[in-house]
Amino acid sequence: MILEVQEINTFYGTSHILFDVSLSVDGGEIVCLLGRNGAGKTTTMRSIMGLTSPQSGSVQFHGEEIRGRPPYYIAQKGMGYVPDNRLIFPDLTVRENLELAYKVPENFDGEPWTVNRIYDLFPLLKGLDKNLGGYLSGGEQQMLTVGRTLMGNPDLLLLDEPVEGVAPLVVKDLREQILKLKEMGQTILFSEQNVRFATMTAERAYVIDKGKIRYQGSIEELSANEEIKKEYLMI
Ligand SMILES: Nc1ncnc2c1ncn2[C@@H]1O[C@H](COP(=O)(O)OP(=O)(O)O)[C@@H](O)[C@H]1O
Ligand SMILES: [Mg+2]
Asked: What is the topology classification, in CATH, of domain 3-232?
């Protein structure tokens, strides 16, 4: 397992948000964390990345306990995080946004990303090479955010609601791009509200609601489970 989360409990101040959340991601897998608005998806991502450390439980990354470690340490170990707010540098060009994010984690043994390879994956960005980040559409910004995180050569990519609020055509592009990344062997954990997008990209899913994992299984099993979908997801 690349990532093994066991029974984490996470708080914001005195508010208990995550209750004994466990999940795991194996090398090369695409796993989806599904749940409605407010279910605890972002908090789970933040807990894994070290942005909000869980008070108890365990987060193992490549077999190393990282709970309580700061985000920069976890990033250096090869975890990449795309937050749900697409914070790119508005006054830098697309290329500058990408170049700035270049980093090779410790023990990385693949072929590092280059700006040109990012452009092969996201052809739309290639045509925007010299455009300023601040003038991109929501979908273009989302591609740039993912591209920028890839420039850090993560072996585990966390994507927090990658298609939320982007236009349907861009959703289709992002779906294909996620599948291409999978073909390249990229391990991905992403969160999503909509079961349809998940079934087209992920192979396994966890369903979270009110800070607890309510279901886990293959995406086929989930698709067939009307009860779980009705109770916890948008269908
Ligand atoms: N900074 C915060 N302080 C207090 N409560 C928060 C904070 N951020 C989120 N919450 C609460 O934590 C719960 C889970 O939120 P979140 O993880 O953002 O859910 P999701 O990403 O699934 O929409 C929600 O009830 C939300 O109101
Ligand atoms: Mg969220």
From this structure: Rossmann fold (3.40.50)
